[in-house]
Amino acid sequence: MRNNKLLVGLLPIIMVAGTANAAELYNKDGNKLDFSGQIQGNHYFSNDKEQDGDNSYARFGIRGETQVTEQIMGYGYYQTQLNASSSENSGANNSTTRYAFAGIKFGDLGSFDYGRNDGILYDVGGWTDVLPEFGGDSYEQTDGFMTQRAANLATYRNKNLFGAVQGLDFAVQYQGRNDSNDRNRTDSNGDGWGMSSTYDLGMGLSVGAAYASSDRTDTQSKDGLGDRADGANAGIKYDANDLYLAAIYGQTYNMTEYGDEFIANKTQNVELVAQYQFNSGLQPSLAWVYSKGKDLGHSVGSKTYDNEDLVNYIDVGAYYHFNNNFTTKIDYKINMLDSNEFTKSADISTDDIVSVAFVYQF
């Protein structure tokens, strides 16, 4: 049975997300430097004790640009996160590097950068990763090949098809091998490449698709699932008239981790989200996030589980914008997974989570 005994009374608490402008530190002679940040006081309520409790943090980012010539610009971006939920003596509050990349842009010819950045599949996957707290996790995983934030990425991007077709963008990405000793098996990857294309059709409507393929490391390939990890997605979104709607469908092969470091032979994934921005500052959010594992070959005793739900939840939440710098938000993740032999053996949580937060941003 699902455990839905979570603080339903918290739902009337309104939450807000605003977009704030970064603070400009320097802007002179073609050189520009911006500083941005977010400080979030956040608490999770859940019967899952690994999730329940403080989840506060601070994020800071710095972005620089320099105009080399009229058509050539250099740029770089760095963002770090400082976690605040552990004691000062625990050593668990070390900073985490979320982004660190630098590159060069050649007018309509496009841009090229290298470093820690978003993987190519996230060009479309990010369309549904807009929930107040949760979301974007049916197959998108940090350092999971090119599905979300990852390291060792070289990315070429071109907007408006070299200036010839307004709204038609494409990108090509290469990821170098990440298999050092400090990486877990599921955080590693071999050499890979991917590409994406999105098209803004006008009137707020956009469509897009992406594909990525990578070598699996020798350690990963020992599970017998093969030497390649592949993923593809497609999506559509509408963003106009204070209404935001987005839907994506994706499939992965030998790429997606589930539970306690198991890898799915195949996943089929759906993410749907709907939000509306009221003039008052209230922005309610409703979403469904789902991932189906196929041909898993997951054995528990004498029984083998092949086709199982890996992620399945309905998300009900809201932002509330006081102004561009201060937001409150609430997010209720209604877990639709059942507690059974499969979820227990794979260490997949089946409990609901409520997130409540205050956010200051600049």
In short:
The chain is mainly beta and 362 residues long. 5% of the residues lie in helices and 54% in strands. It has one domain: Porin.
Overview of the molecule:
The longest helix has 6 residues, at 341-346. The strands form 3 sheets. The protein has a 16-stranded antiparallel beta barrel with strand order 2-4-5-6-7-8-9-10-11-12-13-16-17-20-21-22. It has 362 residues and is mainly β. It is 5% helix and 54% strand. The chain has a single domain (14-361), classed as Porin (Beta Barrel). It is globular and about 70 Å long.
Question: What tags apply to this protein structure?
Answer:
globular; 4 helices; 16-stranded antiparallel β-barrel; mainly beta; 22 strands; 362 residues
Mean pLDDT: 92
Number of helices: 4
Percent helix, as a range, is under 10%
Task: Find the count of extended strands (DSSP E, 2+ residues).
Answer: 22
- Rg, Cα atoms, Å: 21 Å
The termini sit apart by 43 Å
Q: Provide the CATH architecture.
A: Beta Barrel
Name the poorly predicted regions: 1-19
Q: Largest beta sheet: what is the strand line-up?
A: 2-4-5-6-7-8-9-10-11-12-13-16-17-20-21-22
Could you name the CATH homologous superfamily? Answer: Porin
CATH class: Mainly Beta
Q: Characterize the main sheet.
A: 16 strands, antiparallel, barrel
SS content category: mainly beta
The domain count comes to: 1
Shape descriptor: globular
Series of secondary-structure elements, N-terminal to C-terminal: EEEEEEEHEHEEEHEEEEEEEEEEHE
β-strand amount: over 45%
